[in-house]
Design brief:
314 residues; alpha/beta; Rossmann fold; UDP-galactose 4-epimerase, domain 1; 6-stranded parallel beta sheet; 14 strands; 42% helix; binds serine
């Protein structure tokens, strides 16, 4: 019998691309896209789709019963900027959504669970440069608090119940296929759309705000590499530090000007996302991922910029 994979939150920024890639690898019929919204990607990517609300246990249980999945990717979440507008809802979705999925994964003998964490688990007192896997972590957004708590739950389910949960702390993810989901790093996507539309962009983060980032192709490849890695290689059961590049809005603008010479970057004052960005690392040390599952990014800022402009021009 073929094994089935569920992707919950399939229509988001990551899910849209992850579902396509998993279907390429495992076959369209064996990757079930689940979301509370109808999928809007083109029919060539079509495969099974289910409406799933991770907070509705009856609904979730019915999906586990129907598909008896061997692997689950839980991507449904409220991100950093949106989370601050509705902290209780962000906590509820990010936390109880995870606990519901972990519990059903145990009940239905799911072999592997993937759950994304984020650089948002770090906070104002974490080291800013080459932030290491283990250091002070004092997140001050509800998103970061929920991700740090979620990491602890993932490790707990692994230690207490032997559930094979795997996780990555994503940096800002840059992609062109689906819109970003309300994060603090979203400027690094909007900037490309506006550069092509009007050769200018008004950044909500200031010129010197350095943040860790990654091109989506690297993120998808890394995620699948972690999920395929031999179990005995994995030494981290909370969530792996993970990075591709780091830059500031100013540095990205200079790179964009190599393609669009008259591109202008302006800055808006007093955006609440600035304080969030200021509390996060500027760069990440991902040596555990390099050592345990040979992680190596392929996209630097120059190559990412070329790819973003090439795809968005079409
Ligand atoms: N990109 C995310 C955010 O900005 C970080 O995990 O919220």
């Amino acid at each position: 019998m073929h094994e089935t994979t569920l992707v919950i939150g399939a229509n988001g920024q990551i899910g849209t691309e992850l579902v396509t890639e998993l279907r390429n690898i495992y076959g369209s019929d064996y990757v079930v896209a689940c979301d509370i919204r109808r999928p809007d990607y083109d029919t060539k990517n079509a495969g099974p789709f289910e409406f799933v609300n991770v907070l509705d246990k009856e609904n979730l249980k019915a999906i586990f019963q129907k598909y008896k999945p061997s692997a689950i990717y839980l991507l449904a979440a409220i991100l950093s900027a949106t989370g601050e507008q509705n902290p209780k809802l962000a906590w509820d979705l990010n936390m109880n959504g995870l606990l519901n999925v972990l519990d059903f994964a145990l009940d239905f003998n799911v072999k592997k669970v993937y759950w994304p964490s984020s650089i948002a688990v770090f906070g104002p007192n974490s080291p800013k440069e080459h932030t290491s896997q283990y250091c002070v972590m004092d997140p001050n957004t509800v998103y970061g608090i929920s991700k740090l708590a979620g990491e602890r739950w993932c490790e707990y389910y692994f230690n207490k119940h032997g559930l094979d949960v795997r996780s990555i702390r994503y940096p800002g993810l840059i992609s062109w296929k689906a819109a970003p989901g309300g994060g603090t790093t979203d400027y690094a996507i909007h900037i490309f759309h506006d550069a092509l539309k009007k050769a200018s962009y008004n950044s909500f983060l200031n010129a010197e705000t350095r943040l860790p980032m990654m091109y989506m192709d690297d993120a998808i490849r890394g995620t699948i590499e972690l999920m395929e890695a031999p179990v005995e290689k994995l030494s981290i059961r909370s969530s792996y530090n993970f990075t591709g590049m780091d830059f500031t809005p100013e540095e990205l603008a200079i790179e964009i000007r190599k393609h669009i010479p008259d591109f202008k970057l302006n800055y808006s004052a007093h955006d609440p996302r600035q304080a969030i960005a200021d509390s996060w690392p500027k760069s990440i040390d991902d040596s555990f991922a390099q050592r345990d599952w040979n992680w190596k990014p392929e996209f630097d800022m120059a190559r990412m910029t070329e790819e973003m402009l090439r795809h968005l021009r079409k």
